[in-house]
Prior knowledge:
Elements: H1 8-13, H2 16-73, H3 76-86, H4 92-120, H5 125-147, H6 149-153, H7 157-180, H8 190-207, H9 219-237, H10 242-253, H11 256-293, H12 295-331, H13 339-346, H14 349-365, H15 369-421, H16 430-448, H17 453-471, H18 476-491
Amino acid sequence: MAAANEPRRDVLDSRRAGGIFLRGSSMRMLAYLGAVAASIAATPLLTRHLHKESYGRYVTVTSLLLIVTALSEGGLANLGVREWSTGAEGERRTFMRSLIGLRIALSVCGGVAATLFTVLAGYPSVVVEGAVIASVGLVFATLQGTLALPLSTGLRFGWLALLDFVGPATTALGLVVLVLAGATLLPFFTAAVLAFAVTLTITVILVRNQITLRPAFEPRRWRFLLSQSFVFAAATALGAVYFQIVVVAMSLLTNAGAVGIFSLAFRILSVVNGIPLLVVGSAFPILLRAARDDRARLRYALQRLLEGELLIGGWLSLLIVAGAPFAVSVMGGSGYAGSGTVLRILGPGVIATFLSGVFLFALLAVRMYRPLIAINAGMIVLAAAMCAVLIPAHGAQGAAIVTLSLEVVLASAYATALFVSHPELRPDLALVARIALALAIAYAVALVAPLSSLPAAAAGTAALAVAIVALRALPRELLDVLRQTTDAGGAQ
């Protein structure tokens, strides 16, 4: 009982924080996989019902709103985590009131900007109207993310896992209902709005006794808040934009059919790429506290995160590359011919995305904001230039090459910036090398074996498991968790 009532600061400072994170992130991973399963169940119905042209428009609106979310959110969510984790107890209530009001105002402005963009760019009316509907969801999502800060900093992973599942599952359910009702494209944008409303309601119930729910609309205090957070906000916001730029560029530079082909592969990849931010984001309060108080602890945490993300990201990359034809046939059917090749091009970039997540949060923890701004701004320029060259010439495959290249360049730039400035944080590469070798063996088996896509993915997974055991390439913390789970099961 005492442990359950341990103060938030003690939890973040204690040695138990790492174990809580591992168990909690595993819980969130399971919840996320459940959400993915719900999405997988809904997507084949959605893609076949809308066909590739309308589905491409649906994903275009989604990507546009994600760009606006990143820019209007301005990194304030991560700033909130920082302030809640390290700020004085008496300042948090005032801070939260101002943060809630500011984020509501910014999300409304962002929704208006997104709608104006669709009008000025000459999109069809259904895309413009879809942007209006999606903007309502943006406000709900922004408010929910802000109110959930005490759950994240308090390491309350069980409730976070529930929210991780409920939102996507509600969206998937809404999409299925609309497909069965024979709806046209426009109503499908309401499914996410409903899901955000549900998760917002749950969050309010959970935190209503911890923080104020009443926003403060005080422009003078907002200016102060933004002046204090501008560098931090810019460092995080720009990094979330480049990935979605490719979809919007596709919608402007090529035809609706090509957009639909790329959108299916991109959507599959986006589901997988949500995992590293989920896992490493859960550890962010711990990284912040370690960066402030104990650099040896920070290096240890980064070492374990790097090993775990490389292993998980490598395995998921293997599944995507080997299983791409099967995934596309299930998710889209024959109407999306060409998406399998696009997905195979995108697949290797998953490893880079998983590693980027570790380096990003490490850079934020040690407050290297200006290098982050420079790198991320450079990525946007590079994305625009590569899109202008490769998409008109090569269509969906050109967009895939752009995305893969950006992921690799971003991970390399983050790692270089971090370890050049903070050589004391450089990881021990012994276990990293063994994991990389195990992944190389698994890739070779999956790609060389004369098997169709699904059996090849299974063979690669089996080879990876054998190689991990033979090379002793399983990260120690993951092995400890497995042992604890096995011991608990035996005790029961």
